[in-house]
Amino acid sequence: MFETAIAGSLPKPSWLSETEKLWPQWKLAGPDLQQAKADATLLWIKAQEDAGLDVVGDGEQSRQHFVHGFLEQVEGIDFDNKVTMGIRNNRYDAQVPQVIAALRLKGRVHAFEAQLARAHTKKKLKFTLPGPLTIVDTVADRFYGDKKTMAFAFAELLNQEALALQADGVDIIQFDEPGFNVYMQDAVDWGVQALEIAARGLTCTTAVHICYGYGIKANNDWKETLGQEWRQYAQVFPALAASSIQQVSLECYQSHVPPDLMALLKDKDVMVGVIDVASDVIETPEQVADTIGIALQHVPRHRIFPCTNCGLAPMSREVATKKLEALAQGAALARQRYGA
Ligand code: ZN
Fold this sequence. Notes:
Elements: H1 30-51, E1 55-56, H2 68-71, E2 74-87, E3 92-105, H3 111-119, E4 124-130, H4 132-136, E5 140-141, H5 147-167, E6 172-176, H6 184-198, E7 205-209, H7 217-224, H8 232-241, E8 247-250, E9 269-275, H9 285-296, E10 304-308, H10 317-338
Parallel strand pairs: 1-4, 3-5, 4-6, 6-7, 7-8, 8-9, 9-10
Antiparallel strand pairs: 2-3
Helix pairs in contact: 1-3, 1-10, 5-6, 6-8, 9-10
This protein binds zinc ion.
């Protein structure tokens, strides 16, 4: 009951890359970089286990950014000529590569870190991939001319990699779709369908993470404009409830998401965000257990999976480590409080 996991990303150590940035520059190159990525991955697996989490991941230590890390292994994308593009409905500008030809995988994308992680933990292993809708919002299109068509092309590539990750021994494959909270109508019209293509044929657990973004200023400013009730999830949750995706994550603690929206997810497992990624204040176990208590009013206990609201990548290592501990300790307290 109340199995814990993080959303996905963790801070990169200062010897691996710049810190507290969304697109950090690597500090090494070639074989040294590969070794450093491996070291950082193992370090975070140990930290997640030490904190007491039930499900662990690679902390996304091998990718510069959660979307572009995947795109780097895709043929048909020009990384040499990045352009500035407003992303997430123009919330902030990003330097993005351009799609210039039909898309094809160059080969495996995440074999190295997935296999490394699998070899070094006996815990359940979760691996994250960007979702198709969010990918098409984080790359410039000079070829397809249509978001849906391009999203479906990416979904096929994601499916190839997801099936290979499953063969590597990954237990949970999670697609990250922060774009679902920005382009709600697109998400309903074709985003969920693209997600199901990406997850086609998987027999491991499938998940989707939908959030209000990393704790960066552009996102925090945006949240200020969303009013006292954040109802974005209300549009996409019914479509996800009707889909084949098994787990859905949402922000809860310190958000303005009405908790009763969780009930829209009907028979899904719900990864409840009990850790705020927009603040360095460390949650107490009591606060985490209280949030789980709120979720219990809307979701049966066996379907609640305490989680972070989003990734922890832009935070300091020290804060992230303490937040992992708070997550595990809060879930343990909730088991005592609400256990049968
Ligand atoms: Zn997120």
